[in-house]
Amino acid sequence: MKRLDKNIVLGTWAWGDNNSYFGNNYDENHFKAIFDEANKQGLNIWDTAYAYGNGASEEILGNLIQDMPREEVIISTKFTPQMEDGTENAVSNMLEGSLKRLKTNYIDYYWIHNDANVEKWTPKVIPLLQSGKIRHIGVSNHTLSEIKRVQEILNEAGLKLDAVQNHYSLLDRTSEQAGILKYCKENQITFFAYMILEQGALSGKYDIEHPFPAGSVRAKSYNSKLPELTELINTLREIGVRHNLSVAQTVMAWAISKNVLPIIGVTRVKHVDDAAQVLTAGKLTNNEIKTLEQVADQANVNTIAGWEQDMRKDN
């Protein structure tokens, strides 16, 4: 199985986008070329969730992976408390649905998608770990104190927390500032960083002259912020030139240089190729990292979404 370190996770949030969140209408055939290119480039870690299109993302991914050896792909999917069925077996029921859609008998990384009720949901993943239906457990959108509590509950059963997945980007470094990255490093917990490109706002594709598609949730979330991001995009471009990287690739390189595992949404073959190229590039220098973070701080743009929290408030 491919190692997680020195890698990039391919995200499928926008696959099966049936609620116009991202403003695309791609069908499964569109994603086959992306999947094939990922295999060609040696990228095989896929992140999805039942919450992404009410299972549509999982179904597309499952159809694509069904003809390849299971050990050659790493699958990450999630239990979302807000979508539970109200039964005693809500976690296992959602997992069974994911297994069916993904056409597999186990999940490599299974996440509690948010911190709705740590005391209730954490114990319910323990039997799933013990059964082998999930190989690693992770938590997403949890504060440091909640992460530590999850760790305590799992430790009591002789298990451990393997991964944390939080929003982490140049515009939202609250997980770092709250000590979560430090805690993960000290406890051999892999930190998966989602939205490092801020859903494209830090990709270099969108600016004042080229806003997000009208009517999409991304447009509502980011178009008003694009003017404040101009200097940061320009700085990313300048640093990227030194490393022969695009704006988006420079963001990926920043994340890798921070020793986190970035998740990159892939809706085009080029996104896969860009990610593969970053893995062969060297890390950014400490001065370049410092410059990017200073410019980002000066932009003072808040991109914490409604379902998320400022992790520093936990301190």
Relative strand content: 5-15%
Total DSSP helices: 12
- Characterize the main sheet: 8 strands, parallel, barrel
Rounded to the nearest angstrom, the distance between the terminal CA atoms is: 37 Å
Please state the average pLDDT score: 94
CATH superfamily: NADP-dependent oxidoreductase domain
Computed over alpha carbons, the radius of gyration is 19 Å
Helices and strands, in order, run as EHEHEHEHEHEHHEHHHEHH
Strand adjacency order, main sheet: 1-2-3-4-5-6-7-8
Number of E-state strands: 8
Computed structural class: alpha/beta
Low-confidence segments, given as residue ranges, are none
Overview of this protein structure:
It comes from Lactobacillus crispatus. Residues 7-296 form the NADP-dependent oxidoreductase domain. InterPro entries: AKR (IPR020471), AKR_Detox_Biosynth (IPR050523), NAD(P)_OxRdtase_dom_sf (IPR036812), NADP_OxRdtase_dom (IPR023210). Pfam families: Aldo_ket_red (PF00248). One of its GO terms (molecular function) is oxidoreductase activity. With 315 residues, the protein is of the alpha/beta class. It has a single domain (9-314), classed as TIM Barrel. It is 42% helix and 13% strand. It has 12 helices and 8 strands. The protein has helices spanning 28-41, 56-65, 90-102, 118-131, 144-156, 174-177, 180-186, 217-222, 230-242, 247-257, 269-280, 286-299; strands spanning 9-11, 45-47, 74-79, 107-112, 134-140, 163-167, 190-194, 261-265. Strands 1-2-3-4-5-6-7-8 form an 8-stranded parallel β-barrel, surrounded by 5 helices. The radius of gyration is 19 Å and the shape is globular.
